[in-house]
Design a protein that fits this description.
Layout (H helix, E strand, L loop, with lengths): L1 H201 L2 H11 L4 H11 L5 H18 L2 H4 L3 H7 L4 H15 L21
Helix pairs in contact: 1-2, 2-3, 4-6
Main location: cytoplasm
Subunit structure: Interacts with RAB6A. Directly interacts with TBC1D23. Interacts with FAM91A1; this interaction may be mediated by TBC1D23. Interacts with ARL1; this interaction recruits Golgin-97/GOLGA1 onto the Golgi apparatus.
Protein name: Golgin subfamily A member 1
C-alpha cells in the first residue's frame, strides 16, 4: 500500500511537473511574442519620434517662412505707400509740364510766325545771292579768258625768247664754223705752200704742177695723169712717195678731228680696202669719244694691228 501511494504521488508529481513545463513553455512562447511586440513598439516609437522631429523642423521652417512673408508684406505695403506718394508727385509734375507745354506751344506759334517772316526774307536774300553768283560766274569767265590771253602772251613771249636765244646760239655756232673753216683753209694753204716749196726745191715746173694736182684729187689716178702730161724727169713713185710722206706726217701730228679729214687720202695712197678704211675711221671716232667702245681689230694672224708687247 505504501508503495502504491508513493507511486501515485510520483505520478501526480510527474504529471504536475509536466503541466508546469508545458505552462513554462507556453509562458516562454508568450514572453517571446511579447518581446517581439515590444521591439515592434519600440521601432514604431522611434519612427514616431523621428517623424515628430521632422514635423517640428518643418513647423519651425513654416514659422520662419511665415515671419518672412509677414516682413515682405510689410515692406511691400511700405513700398506701395511710397509709390503712391511718388505717383502723386509725378502727377503734380505732369500737370506742371502740361502747363509749361502749353506755354511753349504759344511761344512756338510765335516763333513759327517769325520763322515765316524770316523765310520770306531768306528767299529774297537767296534770289539776290543767285543773281550775285551769276554775275560772279560771268566775271570769273571773263577773268579766265583774260588769264588765258595773258598766258598765251607770256607763252608767246617765252617762245620768242627761246627762238631768239636759239638764233643767237646758231649764229654763234655759224661764226665758229666759219672760223673753223678759215683755220682749215689756212692749214690747207700752208700744206700747199710747204709741198710747193719742197717740189720746187727737188724738181722743175712739172713737179710743181704735179704737186698742186696731188693736193686736189681724191685718187692716185689723177696724180698719175698730171704727172704723165707734164713730161718731167721725176718718176711717179717719187712724187707719190713725197705726197705720202707729207700726208702721213700731217696725219700723225694732227688731232683726231683733223686727222679724220685725211683718212680718205691715206686710204687712197696706201690702197686700203673699204673695211680697213672703215676701221681707221672707227678708231679715230673711238679716240675722240669718252664712252665709245674700241673697234674690234681681230686676233691672231687675222689681226689688223700688232698687239703691244
Amino acid at each position: 500500500m505504501p508503495c502504491l501511494c508513493r507511486q501515485a504521488a510520483r505520478a501526480s508529481v510527474t504529471q504536475e511537473r509536466n503541466q508546469y513545463n508545458t505552462r513554462l513553455e507556453e509562458l516562454d512562447v508568450e514572453c517571446a511574442q511579447i518581446t517581439v511586440a515590444l521591439e515592434a513598439e519600440r521601432s514604431a516609437c522611434t519612427s514616431f519620434r523621428s517623424e515628430n522631429s521632422r514635423l517640428e523642423r518643418e513647423l519651425e521652417s513654416e514659422r520662419t517662412r511665415a515671419n518672412n512673408l509677414v516682413q515682405d508684406l510689410e515692406r511691400e505695403c511700405g513700398e506701395k505707400d511710397a509709390t503712391l506718394v511718388r505717383n502723386a508727385q509725378v502727377n503734380q509734375q505732369v500737370e506742371l509740364a502740361r502747363q509749361e507745354l502749353r506755354a511753349q506751344q504759344g511761344e512756338v506759334s510765335d516763333l513759327n510766325q517769325r520763322l515765316h517772316a524770316l523765310q520770306s526774307q531768306l528767299d529774297e536774300r537767296q534770289d539776290e545771292l543767285e543773281r550775285t553768283r551769276k554775275e560772279r560766274e560771268e566775271l570769273a569767265t571773263r577773268v579766265g579768258v583774260l588769264q588765258v590771253i595773258e598766258h598765251d602772251k607770256e607763252a608767246a613771249s617765252a617762245v620768242e625768247g627761246r627762238l631768239r636765244a636759239s638764233l643767237v646760239d646758231m649764229e654763234e655756232q655759224l661764226s665758229e664754223k666759219h672760223k673753223h673753216i678759215r683755220v682749215l683753209q689756212q692749214r690747207l694753204g700752208d700744206m700747199k705752200k710747204t709741198l710747193q716749196r719742197e717740189l720746187r726745191a727737188g724738181g722743175d715746173s712739172g713737179d710743181y704742177e704735179a704737186g698742186v694736182a696731188i693736193l686736189t684729187p681724191s685718187s692716185s689716178k689723177t696724180i698719175t695723169n698730171n704727172h704723165n702730161s707734164g713730161n718731167t724727169g721725176i718718176s711717179e713713185d717719187d712724187v707719190n712717195f713725197k705726197y705720202l710722206k707729207h700726208v702721213l706726217i700731217k696725219f700723225l701730228t694732227s688731232r683726231e678731228y683733223e686727222a679724220q679729214h685725211l683718212t680718205r687720202a691715206v686710204a687712197t695712197l696706201l690702197r686700203f680696202s673699204p673695211e680697213e678704211e672703215r676701221l681707221l675711221r672707227e678708231t679715230l671716232d673711238w679716240k675722240m669719244s669718252w664712252f665709245g667702245s674700241r673697234p674690234r681689230l681681230g686676233a691672231g694672224q687675222t689681226a689688223k694691228a700688232i698687239p703691244p708687247s
